[in-house]
């Protein structure tokens, strides 16, 4: 028996290699290709969406905006034109989830530090407290790269509207206060066409890693 295998060892080796290659090809052919969904208001938790757009089931994009960043510069959608970016909502005096979110967002910044096609946009939900100097101090403390990451303030009504009508990421607070906001832990991924492509728990390392992987996927497919 041993002499038989020695005699045909090249044949069996070739058969083995052929089997490995065939199995690999079948696996790749049958493995579902990664796809990132496109989110519309009708697709997400209605608590996070303004009632005027809850019915929208397609063609949803981020509205035009104009805010002021940590350097006192006006930031608009034109600064993010053709970019993939991550948006979130926070406030500098938050002592619960915000420090964790900001630390994790710096990991996103680090992962794409040399890629100008990826940016970050953080909105304060307490603009009456988070003035430009306050945001600048916070940005410096957190190691924010000004060319990649804008921390913005502005009219609370405008922040409220874009949070709930565009990013679908903020809950309402007290019913009697029309523009009261309760920010969530969501990081929102936006593609180059201003479409929402994903929501990620900014307090969880595994979700942030998934976000980084999805950004890399968009860089290749968007």
Can you walk through the features of this model?
The chain is α/β, with parallel strands linked by helices. It has six helices and nine strands; from the N terminus they run H-H-E-E-E-H-E-H-E-H-E-E-E-E-H. The longest helix has 22 residues. It folds into two domains: 31 residues; 181 residues, 3-Layer(aba) Sandwich (Glutaredoxin), CATH 3.40.30. The strands form three sheets. The chain has a five-stranded mixed β-sheet with strand order 5-4-3-8-9. A two-stranded antiparallel sheet has the order 1-2. The radius of gyration is 23 Å and the shape is globular. The model has no long low-confidence stretch (mean pLDDT 89).
Give a short summary of the structure.
The protein is an alpha/beta fold and 222 residues long.
User: Which CATH first-tier class of the largest domain would you pick?
Assistant: Alpha Beta
Proportion of strand residues: 15-25%
CATH topology of the largest domain: Glutaredoxin
What radius of gyration results from the CA coordinates? 23 Å
The CATH superfamily title of the largest domain:
Glutaredoxin
- What is the residue-averaged pLDDT? 89
What's the number of structural domains? 2
For the sheet with most strands, the description reads: 5 strands, mixed
What general outline do the C-alpha atoms trace? globular
Structural class: alpha/beta
Cα distance spanning the termini: 58 Å
Strand order of the largest sheet: 5-4-3-8-9
User: Which CATH architecture of the largest domain?
Assistant: 3-Layer(aba) Sandwich
Helical content band: 25-40%
Q: Count of DSSP helices?
A: 6
* Spans of at least 5 consecutive residues with low confidence: none
């Amino acid at each position: 028996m041993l002499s038989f295998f020695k005699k045909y060892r090249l044949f069996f080796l070739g058969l083995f290699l052929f089997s490995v290659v065939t199995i690999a090809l079948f696996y790749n052919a049958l493995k579902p290709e990664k796809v990132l969904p496109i989110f519309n208001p009708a697709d997400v938790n209605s608590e996070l969406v303004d009632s005027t757009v809850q019915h929208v089931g397609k063609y949803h994009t981020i509205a035009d905006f104009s805010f002021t960043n940590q350097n006192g510069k006006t930031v608009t959608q034109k600064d993010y034109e053709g970019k993939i970016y991550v948006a979130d909502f926070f406030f500098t005096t938050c002592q619960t989830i915000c420090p964790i979110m900001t630390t994790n967002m710096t990991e996103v910044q680090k992962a794409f530090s040399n890629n100008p096609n990826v940016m970050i946009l953080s909105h304060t939900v307490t603009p009456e407290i988070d003035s430009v100097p306050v945001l600048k101090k916070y940005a410096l403390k957190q190691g924010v790269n000004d060319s990649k990451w804008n921390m913005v303030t502005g009219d609370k009504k405008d922040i409220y509207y874009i949070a709930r009508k565009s990013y679908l990421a903020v809950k309402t607070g007290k019913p009697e206060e029309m523009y009261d906001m309760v920010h969530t832990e969501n990081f929102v991924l936006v593609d180059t066409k201003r479409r929402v492509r994903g929501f990620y728990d900014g307090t969880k390392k595994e979700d942030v890693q998934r976000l980084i992987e999805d950004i890399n996927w968009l860089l290749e497919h968007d």
